[in-house]
Amino acid sequence: MTPALKAQWQMHACVLLWGFTAILGKAITMPAMALVVWRMGLVTAALLLVPRVWRGMAALPARLLLVYAGIGTLVALHWLTFYGAIKLANASVAVSCIALATVFVPMVEPWITGRRFEPRELLLGVAVVPGVALVVGGVPAGMRLGIVVGTVSALLVAFFGALNKRYVERADPLTVTCVELGAGGLILALLTPVLPWFGSPLVLPGFNDAVLLLVLAMACTLLPFALSLVALRHMSAFSAQLAVNLEPIYAIVLAALLLNEQRELGGMFYAGVAIILAGVFAHPLLSRRPLHKPEPTTLGTAESKSLD
Fold it and tell me: Are the CB atoms for 251 and 22 separated by under 8 Å?
């Protein structure tokens, strides 16, 4: 097997594991706040066992440490709203909303990274709006609050993804991920009084939830992060982006197979999802600017990988 073909299989394995994060979020009975704090804490604890991470943190300037802590807070809020959307609606609705990051990136990224604004990218993002309307019309009324929360989560993806692109090359990816998740989890727990809708972080998981949390943290967060670092060395930017853009499809198929969510959703929902995903895949094809591989740190901290 050639290194390029092996990298393709590795990346698709990563995407499949990322797709399971939404399924596990639905299966874990803990409130969203506790789920996210536990997940971030477990991943941070595992990363702190790596000597390379300690050396990286010791070399970080104080200003950069604060920058990564701030980005980590956005990551934590993204995960909180993502799992909040799952609890309020279901996994299929949440991952469909996250795909809307494509709408927000053209507006957010030029402002943060300083690159030139591309009207074509904004038009591609706006083109998915009819799909959003169909998604809203295709879900029960009781799930629509989940769509609002999921859309906020997509907006947060655009912000922390752009910030990571600006600062990720200034430190080791493992170190950056450890600082972002550790600081983000701590700050999120401190924000609990102003975010009462997502529950308390002071919830001890039962046996089943503990097992699922370990799977979520180790098999669906750390493992694909490490594997993606290897795979990205041997993949073109287009191949990498095409692979990671498949995540919502994998998640929706898994939700139908494992959770029977298709019984809760109408044909309008899936028609809307098709339009949204068409926009996601058209984005790297029609964008004028050069396509870059997904950043390792963004891959390690986001549920949605549909950023170029």
Answer: yes
